[in-house]
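Entry for uracil complex. Fields follow.
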Amino acid sequence: MGKLKDLEKLKKSILKAKNKFPGKNLVFADGNCNSKIMIIGEAPGRTEDKLQLPFVGRAGKILNELLSYIKLDRSKVYITNVVNFRPDENRKPTENEIYFFKKFLIKHIQIINPKFLLLVGSTAAFAILNHSAPLADIRGKWIKSKELNLDAFTIYHPAYLLRQSAQVAVTKKDMLKFKTKVTKS
Ligand code: URA
């Protein structure tokens, strides 16, 4: 089966979980499904739920800026979230929710078959790398996911950068490090 068919099939199985998130829209993905870069965020916010696209609100604007800082456009990467429905009151997804969605996320990654993962924030780092200590310990580092046999790079979440503007410069440096390896291969 082709990628698009597999993605449609995956979308349908995630939609079956919608009853756990009443009144919420499925926010599946955006971008180029043939990209070698797959970006994984946390969960949709209000704007993402409304437009049914990941990272299109305030955090999305920051992500777009980080991408253009390394001369990448979001149409050239593939973007999704760990959790595909907006948690109530913009709370962080619970561990149970992360585990529940992880099987879909792994399938999603397998279908896209990227070369590199860019993990945006602690929920993505937890889901992919099982990292639950402070993000400062692993941000800006390449870490191999043994489960996926895939190199993953973690950055601070844009929503965190909105609160901690001092970390923007750090994250820009991280993006340059990310770019160095990605452009080599
Ligand atoms: N934050 C995320 O992690 N994902 C989105 O899609 C929007 C905000």
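NOTE: Residues 2-11+32-184 form a domain with the Uracil-DNA Glycosylase, subunit E fold (CATH 3.40.470.10).
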